[in-house]
Amino acid sequence: MAAVGTSVPRRDGREKVTGRTAYIDDMSFPGAWHGVVVRSPVAHGRLKGRHLDPAFDWSQVVVVTPEDIPGENLVHEIIKDMPLLCDDEIQYLGEPLALVAAPTKDLAREAAGYITFDIEELPSIQTLKEVIAQYKTDEGKLHKFCAQTIVKGDIEKGFEEADYIIEQEYWAGHHEQAYLEPQGLVAVPGEDGSVLIEGSMQCPYFVALELLPTLNLPPEKLRVRQAPTGGAFGGKEEFPTWLGGYVALMAMKSKRTVKLIYDRHEDIRYTTKRHPSWSRYKTGFKKDGAITAVKVEFFLDGGAYGTLSSIVLARGVLHAFIGYRCDNVFIDGRVYRTHSFPCGAFRGFGAPQAIWGLESQMDLMARACDMTPHAFRLRNAVVPGDTTATGQTLAECEACGTVLERTLEKCDFEAKLARCTRGAQDADTWYGVGLAFFAHGSAFTGDGEARFKAKAALDLALDDAERPVVLIRCSSVEMGQGAHTVLPQIVADGLCADLRFVQNPLPDTALVPNSGPTVASRTTMIVGNTLYGAGRKLKAKLEAYASARFFESQAAILKDSVFSAGHDRVDFEEVALAYLKEHGPVRVEHQYELDPKIAWNQETFEGDAYPSYSWGCNVVELEIDRATLQIEVKKVTGVFDVGRVINPMLAMGQLEGGFLQAFGYALLERIGVRNGAYDADRFQTYIIPTMLDAPPFDFEFMEYPYTFSPPGAKGIGELPIDGLSPAVANAIEMAAGIRMTEIPVTPESLFEALRKQVKS
Amino acid sequence: MKEVTRKWIINGKERQVTCPPLRRLLDVLREDLHLTGTKEGCGEGECGACTVLVNGDPVVSCLIPAGQVPDGAEILTVEGLEETDLGRLLQEAYLEKGAVQCGFCIPGMIMSSYALLQRNATPTELEIREAHAGNLCRCTGYVKIVEAVQYAASKLS
Amino acid sequence: MTRLDTMDCEFPETLADALELMADDTTRGVPLSGGTDLMVQWAGGVVAAPQRVISLAGLPELKGITLKDQCVVVGAGTTHAELRASEVIQARLPALAAAAATVGAQQIQARGTIGGNVANASPAGDLAPALVITGGAVVVAGVHGERRVNLTDFFKGYRSIDLRADELIVRFELPVNPDGSREMFRKIGTRSAQAISKIMAACRIRIEDRTIRSVALAVGSVAPTVIRLTELEAWLTGRVCDEDTIAEAVRRTVSAVSPIDDIRSTAAYREWVSGSMIRGFLDAFFNAEARERR
Does the pLDDT at position C289 exceed 90? Predict the structure, then answer.
């Protein structure tokens, strides 16, 4: 019986509901020291000196400064500009200047208090609002990390053809991942100079490979193990590399195991967030609704260093005009520096910021040519055979506008639209409904998967009870999203054996090949397919063995955990045991093969931007209390194509959880930068939704499997966070008759906007 | 600083602790008694990951001074759930309904479920949501947690 | 080890013992009730941790809710959970029951107390508006005896209450909502639950024949401490509750409050919505009264 397509209960669930799962802070490391990070008190400055106060007894602690770094003082991300410990120009408040390890956390903190720094403070630019104001007057003074354009057709010609041209700016703020388990790593030094890093993370090989030049270690001397991870959402993608650097340096110098576990306050203050964005859409279209020109400026606040902003920007510009036809597109993407904590990965990775602008602009265009929001979208929505902004021809396995049609029907959008109050002054409660249609590219951009060459393996071995077991060996992690249930389901089907034979241990870089980082909605689709291939290989290997050993060289076929040849049958377990007895444990490895038809120009951003796309459409119904302007989302309806659904229950959980994060992004989670620091830096002030805030969700899947990579999954992780914000703003306009252009939309911002509207 | 000694019944077993009077109950459980199932998500009573029951009341153990928990108090943590019928029922319901993702909020969340169903075996959806509003989850959108509690309640009646 | 592990705490078993400790400089400490505010502040270093703490948890004299001569007497150690569940509070002080239900979530309500909420003296203290509209008093005690202070006078200013260093809050004496009058409470927080208030308001009002016979109005989180809108109350009393009256009441409310911008909200929004809340109360009472007449 096939495992794929069934709602197998989460395989790590029992350990979690009994409290037995040991996250990094639950593990025992006898004699471990504790580390603290000593940080810059200014947002921008020049570090002139450092003093260890002789009043403190420094023999009881270990202090790490940039001089202690064995290799280059650099964090190896995409843009290589960030030192692990700052030794010259400070670029943000909280930038690490030194590290202290001590037998207790209190002592480490006390010691940190005796370290002082001479800093010459320099002028700083701290927010995207300041950057854009500067950009509009004199951009020469700004520091640009990176830029990327997409050009299709002739934008000027497109505007000439247009009957209408409208232009609007959209803003989105920082967004905190708010995984429930704070960041934490432990480093254990070996006697041979090696280091083991263990803890909460998404990408064990980022830590294992990127720190080598910094720590000046050969690959075999740095081993990384993932511990059970209490949520990540991108927040544990690249940040654990920095944290791993800190904790490894302390362990190497002290020659002791060192723990570095952030509390919530430190975690919110000093870890990466979603990039704030400003986008300006200038679009031209005809009276009949045909879009003729789309010009987008899409700018991100990178924070103080480049980190991985260039690939966030890439995903951003690739989603800045998606899902609709237009022959003339010009997208200008840039990332600028502010002197604030560097921004980083968060579920969606640039796409939510882009789609926030695009899908708001779609409603503006619809209104301008006197069409309904849905009629305007249906008029322009792509179908297989159409080309995207990069010139990619959409294949038959893309649902495209079908999800839009199905959503409209599912929620009876037309009838709801008729009920909207549109700012009526005689209504006590305003009612509105809003729509957004979107896609999310699955896996690495362009031919990234061909260049990366993801590898995964299966080990056939004996478990502790001397029963045969198939162990999944890949670096893709379980962080709550369900990989350790879904990947075994895929392997079971590839192998044609029961799921009970397949186990998925936590990754350890000493044992697993590099299947890549757990990012980019690629795990189920890419790593799943790679493991499916490995399953096929193991199946063939065991069939050949069974044929010789049990069936007198008749061709054997493994199906439903039974090998058969003619009328003879032998159980999987018996064959596997015999094989293991004869040959010992065996490993089969497989490498992902990207569809060779994918052609991509990484310079010009022309060609096939993604192997495939997931598609989504969501409708928000909301009410606004006139007396308080509190916005209550009454219901969210959605339809999604994520390819083949491997585990419906887990997949639905991904949608629901992603949507609630999107809900917070759209309506609650405001965080600003004041005097260089985040102004909401605790769970008391950074407001994520509770069970009473969560609206009802009515979701369904439409399956358009990605046929090139069995079993046909596409990305699911990021899609649900892409489209809620614009649907909320569109619904607010239908309710209150006003266009909100900055998220989160709060009662306060709505009040301000309405007041300005009255004044004008 | 003068330490205090308290005798409690934790998960059905009598335990004696001696600790600083304002030591957080959470630290006594996790560090002194090695009951690490209870989690610290924020340390300021906002996230509910450290929820345990003291004499049947759900409380955030990060805000409770150990000295204020009197002798004889009954404390139930996630580790004690398996010993109770209601606890096992809830654990099965959480698994079957897909209420668990990363799992970090679950040891606190499920204690709130336990406290609710012990007092009210037929809660409405609103009552369920209110009873868990002090437990933040960032993974699930809460839908399947509500379903799990409803499912467990249906098995009770 | 946290900062809390270094602090001393006494656990007196009677109120008299607690007051003895509080009476003397050498034994006095910061009173600790349910700990839901102070533990956060001490652990996080938001305020300096005191040398010594006096735990009030479990003092029998601070417990209990009783109805006596049209007055509800509430012990300072009564928890929010006990307040909201009490039939006496629900029937006789409905605004207070509603306010208690909005404090934190159930885990906080199970520990936090009315005495602690008042002593914490936050401008956003959830119970304060519902308390001051009763016109009641707080009783504080020291070794030399008790002192009764009107609640309105007790809240002196930003984080400041009329409590001497050697005194403890022991109980509240709250006149019941008289027959024929109604109470309402509304809180707007940063989210639907487990929220600190952006603004909240409470009201006790009696309307007969469309005329306001008596009214008490209080707003929280819009000034350094809770404010009772006494001038507005005087102006409203005796007036017919019609649209003109309501509109003028809204104007007067807006000019009576002095909110600030902070992490949770803006001054402009708070000012506007304080007027809306008063409008909402008057509308609701007026409509209810009109329905009854029909």
Answer: no
Domain at C60-175: CATH code: 3.30.465.10
Q: What residues in chain C have their Cβ under 8 A from chain A's Cβ atoms?
A: 1, 40, 44, 105, 188, 190-196, 263-266, 268-269, 272-273, 276-277, 279-280
Enclosing H/E stretch for A430: strand A429-442
Return per-residue pLDDT of chain B as tens, 157 residues. Answer: 899 999 999 999 999 999 999 999 999 999 999 999 999 999 999 999 999 999 999 999 999 999 999 999 999 999 999 999 999 999 999 999 999 999 999 999 999 999 999 999 999 999 999 999 999 999 999 999 999 999 999 999 7
Contact A687 C195 (CB under 8 A): yes
Helix, strand or coil, per DSSP, at residue A288: coil
Cβ neighbours of A628 in C, within 8 Å: 188, 273, 276-277
Q: Same structural domain for residues B149 and B97? A: yes
Which residue(s) pair with A508 in the sheet?
A: A225
The number of helices, as runs of H, and strands, as runs of E, in chain A is 20, 31
Query: What is the distance in angstroms between the Cα of A82 and the nearest Cα belonging to chain B?
Result: 29
Q: Which chains touch A (3 or more CB pairs under 8 A)?
A: B, C
Residues B74 and B87 in one domain: no
Looking from the CA of A439 toward its CB, the CA atoms found within 13 Å total: 31
Q: Say if residues B144 and B99 touch (Cβ distance below 8 Å).
A: yes
A176 touches chain B (CB under 8 A): no
Q: How far apart are CA B128 and CA A99, in angstroms?
A: 45
User: How do strand A195-199 and strand A222-226 relate by DSSP bridges?
Assistant: parallel
Looking at the domain that runs over C181-293, which CATH code has it been given?
Answer: 3.30.390.50
DSSP A13: H
Q: Tokens 């007449």 label which residue?
A: C293
Question: Rounded distance, CA A331 to CA A758, Å?
Answer: 35
For residue A58, with 0-12 CB atoms within 10 Å meaning exposed, 13-18 middle and 19 or more buried, which class applies?
middle
Chain A residues with beta carbon closer than 8 angstroms to that of B103: 12-13, 15-17, 21, 228, 230, 480
d(CA A2, CA A285): 49
B20: domain CATH number is 3.10.20.30
**Mean pLDDT, range A668-693, rounded to an integer:** 97
Q: Are A13 and A75 in contact (CB under 8 A)?
A: no
Q: Looking at beta carbons, which residues of chain C come within 8 Å of B115?
A: 106
Complex ipTM: 0.99
Three-state DSSP class for residue B6: strand
Residue A361 contacts by C-beta under 8 Å, 6 or more apart in sequence? Answer: A166, A168, A170, A281, A283
CATH no., domain C3-55: 3.30.43
Q: Domain of residue B94: give its range.
A: 81-156
Distance CA A473, CA A471 (A): 6
Q: Taking CB atoms and an 8 Å limit, are A628 and C193 in contact across chains? A: no
Q: CATH number of the domain that B137 lies in?
A: 1.10.150.120
Closest-CA residue to A499 (of A644, A709, A647): A647
Mean pLDDT to the nearest integer, A390-416: 98
Domains of chain A: 30-123+178-269 (3.90.1170.50), 350-442+608-759 (3.30.365.10), 454-591 (3.30.365.10)
- Reported as a single tens digit per residue, the pLDDT across C16-73 is 999 999 999 999 999 999 999 999 999 887 788 898 999 999 899 999 999 999 999 9
Q: Counting beta carbons within 10 angstroms of the beta carbon of residue A157, is it exposed (0 to 12), middle (13 to 18) or buried (19 or more)?
A: middle
